[in-house]
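Annex B. Sample input.
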Amino acid sequence: MHEPSTLTPSELPGRDTRRADHDRTLAAMHELEAALGTAAPGRESSWLAAVLAALIVLDEATDEEYANATQPDSLLCDIKRTQPRLRTRVRGLHTQYAHLRQAIASMRAELARPDDNDTDFADVRQRLAWTLTALRHQRARESDLIYEAYYDAFDTELSVEDESPHDRSSWP
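Annex B, continued. Sample output.
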């Protein structure tokens, strides 16, 4: 058996993939927030183009994150397989993430329509802010589940070096 505060070699790739996915998605979220925060009146087409470009990056990042999280060798699937009492929560996280993915794809399609000249910028900002908040909530729930699973499996907390800097400092 391995030391309780370290991950096994088979667990490291799942952790590393999750970190890379989260880092990429977080960068895309920040990019979208920056685009949403710029002035829109008088520069509607450039504002919309910047928001749409950032939304495309977020859509692609979350798509890859979701695909990796649902792979049989992913960290969440490992938890689902090895810790039966957490299976329902893992399924719930996957389902909620799929819904978020649908919301992002829907907004992307809506904003990409070339015939839509009457974009309500305040509404777009609000709807995408809700989506970003939901993504943050999803990430926090996933982190909580992973920490709970780790604690249950090894009867110890993850060490600081096992945490991503984003996991510790990005959330309000």
